[in-house]
């Protein structure tokens, strides 16, 4: 006997004790280096979910005058992926089992670093990005779509509300 396909059930909405701020038009912020970092609260698709890498960030080199140099050969560069004012933040360790939740509007900017397992983020049009161990990514506040835990997973996260 061939098993029958189960009808697709709508995903349950995630419960959030604190509701996000109302949506407002997107605006841009200037970084100290003069570049632009988006501050989005409008619903966003999968293109707004970005891996945190040097290639996806805006390069910024803090002035050496901000430091007390301990070694003459010191050099550094930051690669900023998002930024802006914050009203609240939280962070920690997360563990999840396979399953999915849907968000009409992601409640905060979230930075995720996957320690174990595999997760996916899929927008309302079905476009998807997957992430695994050692990968980090940013989900913007206002993202509209699904969080899918593909296999038992663990992550470290920072969530910033605007």
TrEMBL record:
UniProt cross-references to InterPro entries, sorted A to Z: RmlC-like_jellyroll, RmlC_Cupin_sf, UGlyAH_Cupin_dom
Top-rank taxon: Bacteria
Positions of the UniProt region annotated as Disordered: 1-41
Sections of the chain in a coiled coil: none
Pfam families tied to this protein: Cupin_3 (PF05899)
Biased composition (Basic residues): 1-18
Domain (S)-ureidoglycine aminohydrolase cupin: 87-157
Protein's name according to its UniProt entry: DUF861 domain-containing protein
